[in-house]
Amino acid sequence: MTIRQLHLLGSPVLRQRSTPVVAVDDAVRRLVDDLFETMHAAKGVGLAANQIGVARRVAVVDVGEDAPPPLVLINPRIVRASELLETAEEGCLSIPDVYGEVERHLSVTLEALDREARPYTVELSGFKARAAQHEIDHLNGVLFLDHVSAVKRGLLLAKWKKSRKGHSGYVKDVTPEPAGEL
Question: What is the per-residue DSSP string for the chain?
Fold first, then answer.
């Protein structure tokens, strides 16, 4: 497993619609492992392949809940979404330190392939449903900023630009925090 660089707002791959995975092979399984490793090192709860510069329909979600366990989402599709909506604050590893209120479906049913290419269906609700919708948006080239009002988006983008002053490029190394002493 490898901790990969994160692509930040402004990187063209974040706005690209990811291509479907034709066959789940060792390269795709390595990508899944790298996504989990990078996400955990960055202290995230989800990560899509295009956030590490790979425009393939692969994402992972781990919000720390056991049921269902951490999700591997290969070629995910939302097949049902609740009519009930919920608004909550979201952030993104590709837009560090910027947060906005986003309305999402309270529960969703997904179909996807796991890391062994087995198809599965899962019903998600609450925070796990929100995280999965956020990652599927990434696979479609959509960012959480696209779900906030134009005025709020302008304010958040101004904050982002100010925080990036003096920084060039659209990739960031992820450095895991060292384990604490016992």
Answer: --PPPEE-TT-GGGGSPPBPPSS--HHHHHHHHHHHHHHHHTT-SEEEGGGGT--BSEEEE--S-SSS-SEEEEEEEEEEE-S-EEEEEEEETTEEEEEEEEEEESEEEEEEE-TTS-EEEEEEEHHHHHHHHHHHHHHTT--GGGGS-HHHHHHHHHHHHHHHTT--SSEE---PPPPPP-
